[in-house]
Amino acid sequence: MNTSTAPSFHATPASTAPPGARAPFGEHLRHWRQHRRLSQQGLALEADISTRHLSYVETGRAQPSREMVLRLAERLSVPLRERNALLVAAGFAPMYQARPLDHPDLAAARQAVELVLQGHEPNPALAVDRHWNLVAANAIVPLLLEGVAPHLLEPPVNVLRLSLHPDGLGPRLANAGAWRAHLLHRLQQQIAATADGQLQALHDEIAAYPCQGGDDASHGSAPGSHIAVPFELHTALGKLSFISTITIFGTPVDVTLQELAVESFFPADAATKTALADMRAAMQAADGAPDA
Description:
By secondary structure, this protein is an alpha+beta fold. It has helices at about 25-35, 40-45, 50-60, 65-75, 80-90, 105-120, 160-165, 175-195, 195-205, 255-260, 270-285; strands spanning about 125-130, 135, 230-235, 240-250, 260-265.
């Protein structure tokens, strides 16, 4: 993780297991239809085709056109990466590129992320890929990671693992039960949307971690005292409390951009706001930089 002011960029439960790369198109289609809990009739109505034709496509008795593949993928809300897999399975070339964020063609997107991260200081902000691996962070984030085991900071740094691991921030969470439940719920929603086996494995891993801070009733603020589930962390400056927002790219046609998310943390109380300002001032003084 880069500790400079400018962020650094690094290339970076389904109902059934996703089909293999060599599986026929019909298996891929059936997997996504069942994952979305749609009958053949329901999907046929959504895609404006006959149930009989859809059945033929699923069983391999009919070959879909490229337009049909894309229409079905759109109705099933299939992510771009998996739409490429559907196209290949049907005998067509992939449509969506998956370039690393440091690719020249993504310079504008990279600059946009840099502006968001830097502009959010003195509050922490970070960017993650679809598996919650750290892509970039502003200069405030490393200041909150004091005491984290070095092995958790070796790339790729997984933000969810870092947040809950007993060698990470887990023991310092003031509302460990609530935050853990919140992160697991977010993962479950993402798994439902993507049918990603790697996310399911991550969910199972962090669900098995001990809840370091105990239950919600005995730690952190009382339920209902916040407008959202806060991220509450014990630090040398006292307990810091944050609420967060997620920013994603609108209408992306690149796999990397669709899978990129920026999480920005905001002070949930005056004490946290003051502590972050003091933290930034100390950082600038240590670097010999003038106060903003």
